[in-house]
User: Fold these one by one.
Assistant:
Number 1:
Amino acid sequence: MTMLKKFSFEGVSDKQIVVFDLDGTIVFDGKTIDSDILSTLLVLDKMSHIIFASARPIRDMLPLLTDFGQNSLIGGNGSMIRHKNQITLTSYIDENFMLKVVNKIHELNLDYIIDYEWNYSAKIEDHRNPILQKLDSAKLADNVAIRTTNVSKVILFNISKELALQFSRDKDVSVLYHEDVQELVITGKGSDKYLALKQVIGDNLYYAFGNDKNDIMLLQNATKGFSVEYPFVQSKNVQIITRQEVCSTIKLLIK
C-alpha cells in the first residue's frame, strides 16, 4: 500500500537537484563513499540540492552520509523518505501478503531481512553474505521478532527464479528479483525511488546517478541520467559511464 504525501521543498528554483544512488554508484566497498567522489560531492552540495536514493533503509544509509546530515534521503527503494530530518514511511507491504512471506520463510528456512519504520527482523546464516556489512552497521536499531504490520521492505535470500515468479504475481506488492545473487526484494505496491522523489520535489527537473534495475525509472525521467556500468537503461537522456568516470562527471555539474 502506498501513502502519497507531498513534502515542502523550498528553494528549488535557484539550485539544481542532483540525485545519487549509493551502492555501486558512489559506494564501492559497502562501507564508505569513494574518497574522491566524497570531496566532489561536498563541493556540489554547496550549490545544489543533493538527494540520496538507495535500496538501503534510511537506518543503513546514515553511516555513509555523516557529511550530509540535512539532505533529503529516499530509502528502501522508495518506501521511506527523510525530509527535514523527519522519517516518513511512504508505503508498506500488505499484511495478508506478509503472512504468506512469513509462512514461506518458516517452510523453507530462508534467510531474510524485514524492515519496519526503523527496527528490523533478520536471520542470515550465510556469514559470507555481503549484506551483513551494510545491515545496521552503526548499531542504531534493534533486531526484533517478526511482525506483519508496517513492513516497509523484505529481502529474501537464496530464492529460485520459480519462487520469485510466484511472489511477483501478487498485485499488492512491488517485486525486484536479482537473479545473479538469487535475492528477492519486496516493497509495497507502487514503491519506487522515482515516485518517492516526486513526492519530495514535485515536477522540478533533476539529474540522477544510478547503477541497477531499481534506478531505471529514476534515470529515465531525469533531465540527464548517468548509469554506472549498467547498460540496460534504454533512454536517449541516459549516458552509460564507468566507475572511474563518476567523479569527473559530477564535476561537470559544479557551476
Note: Helices lie at 35-45, 58-61, 95-108, 161-168, 193-201, 216-220, 246-251.
Number 2:
Amino acid sequence: MATRFSATTQSSRRIPRQQRSRATVDAIVEAAAHVLATRGWAKFTTNEVALAAGASIGSLYQYFPDKLALVDSVRTRHLDAVLAALPDPDTLDLATPLAARVDQVIDGVIEVHSVNQRLHRVLLDEVPLAMRESDSVFEVEYLRRYQALVLPDTACSPGPGDVMAAKVLASAIEGAVHAAASRGELGVSEVRRELKGLVGAYLRERHVQAVER
C-alpha cells in the first residue's frame, strides 16, 4: 500500500486536553501542512511553522518534540481522510449496488488526494522513508475496508486469496490515483471513469468466484 505512517513519534507527544489547546494544535498542524507543501521537506522548519500558526515556538514544542512529530501528525490527518473515504464494513448497506460502492470509493479517494496535491507529493517523495513505515492500527483497518469490497457479503470470512485481493486492489487504486496526481490529471474525468470501470470489472469477477466457492 502506498500510503503509510509511523506511530513512533505519537507516544512522545503531549495530548491537548482543553478546547483552547486543541485549537492550538489544530492550527499548528494546519500550518505544518501548508509549510511542508510550499517549502518541501528540505526547507521545512519548526520556526516557520510556529510563525505561520501564530504560536510561539515554545507552544509548538509542548506538543511536537521535533519536525518529524509534526509531519507524523500531518500524515495521520491524511490517513484518517483516506479511511473515511472507504466503506466501513460495520455500517455497510448490503443493498447498495456494487457500482455505487465502487463510485463511493473512487470518488472519495480522488477527492482526498485532490486537496493540496503538492503536500501529498512531498509526503510520498521527500519525507524520509522511516516516516513511512507500516503502522499496524492503520494497516489493519485499511485492509479490512478493502476486504469489504472484495467480498460479496460482509458476513463471509475472508480467505488467503481474499486478503491478497484486497491488498492488490488497494495498491492498484492508490497507485493509479498517485500517478494521476503526479501528472496533474486528478481532475480529468476520464481518469475517474476508467478507474471505476477497471475496479468494477475486477470486483464483479471476484464476487462471482466467491459465490461459486
Note: The mean pLDDT is 85.
